[in-house]
Amino acid sequence: MKKLVILLGFTIIFSAPSFAATVSGGVSKVDLHNTNMVVDASTKAPVGNAKVSLPKYNYSTYTDNNGMFNVGKIKGTTIMSVEKDGYRPFSLTINDKMAARPLVLGIQKSDVSDVVIESDMFHLGDDNFSEDSSGAGSFRLRSSGPFFSKTFTLNRDVLASKNYLVIGSIIGIDTLMARSMGQNRIVNSYASPPEIYFNGSKIAEIQLNGDNQKIKIPNNLIRPDQLNEVTIKAGRNLMQTAYVDYDDIEIANLSIVSE
Ligand SMILES: [Ca+2]
User: Which pLDDT tens digit goes with each residue over 59-81?
Assistant: First the structure.
């Protein structure tokens, strides 16, 4: 161990001059060209003190008074989320190429009828997945099992509107369609799609990874002024018959929006 520390010390000393130059150059470059911003989607005004998180890196930061924030280098695909009081939770699937350019994230004011079901990121499956899975490099959270279920109250007023379950971001789906769209690099297998249930009735199957997927909730399934339940079941690897291999996925931000 001691040897390792000494070696490390040498590395730092030898690389120090060029490192220092790079840092000072890099800092001014970051300030001028590479700062990301959170704005109000309607007014385009900067939003200060918004929390920006990269759950994969266990990293979070806050925007300054000008709505600006910086994140470190990103490898592969990951979910970025933004939280701010008075706004709908926002998430975005980003990769290293997108993160290398300045990002402007527009967040929307929340509506009184919005119901946030889950604002954190969660992992469904069994923690057994291929490195070639879409977003496999992003998986940090331990699996909470093959399904997610949560209850919440919906006000009678929502029956006058169209209602949608909005999935902020979803990564890791390895369906045949996801594979054919180039969302993973798995050659030999694919999975059934995750299934979405509302009060016990299946309302959708999710075939593709992506952000802000809106799923219509039939109003006749809504129990006004009572508890309602959303359940998401992970898909299964259809090429694995010896045992059940759930398709590991990660989801950030679940909410119900009435329009
Ligand atoms: Ca699995």
Answer: 899 999 999 998 877 888 888 99
